[in-house]
Amino acid sequence: MSCPREKPETPRQPKCTRCRHHGLVVPQKGHAKKCPFSRCCCWKCRLITERTRINAMQRQLERGPGEAEARGIPKASEPPEAPSRTVTRAPPADSRDPDPPREPDPPQSQSK
């Protein structure tokens, strides 16, 4: 039920949560790239980051395994494939083990 004296509902205009926690009220639309607190590590911003990550994981679980693949989105648990280049390096000369493994002693014959 709506009362005739109530204000008509206006569309939502979400605000940047990080800025709001730091005392600024900024509309969220088009703000992500220029948010001054995007790399902030205070406890409030860490909480926002953790909550965002959890919500993304929940959305992924609700969608199911096939839906994300159909949309072309890689799974969050799988890192993107990188070109495989393996470089092996020898350890520095002074990092050798001072006690290298020894060969077991040969069995001694017991003469009586």
Automatic annotation (TrEMBL):
InterPro entries: DM_DNA-bd (IPR001275), DM_DNA-bd_sf (IPR036407), DMRT (IPR026607). GO terms for molecular function: DNA-binding transcription factor activity, RNA polymerase II-specific; metal ion binding; RNA polymerase II cis-regulatory region sequence-specific DNA binding. Keywords: DNA-binding, Metal-binding, Nucleus, Zinc. The keyword Metal-binding applies. Residues 58-112 are annotated as: Disordered. Residues 16-63 form the DM domain. The keyword Cell membrane does not apply. It is found in: Nucleus. Residues 16-63 bind DNA. Residues 60-72, 94-105 have a biased composition (Basic and acidic residues). Coiled coil: none annotated. One of its GO terms (cellular component) is nucleus. GO terms for biological process: sex differentiation. Belongs to the DMRT family. This is DM domain-containing protein. It comes from Knipowitschia caucasica.
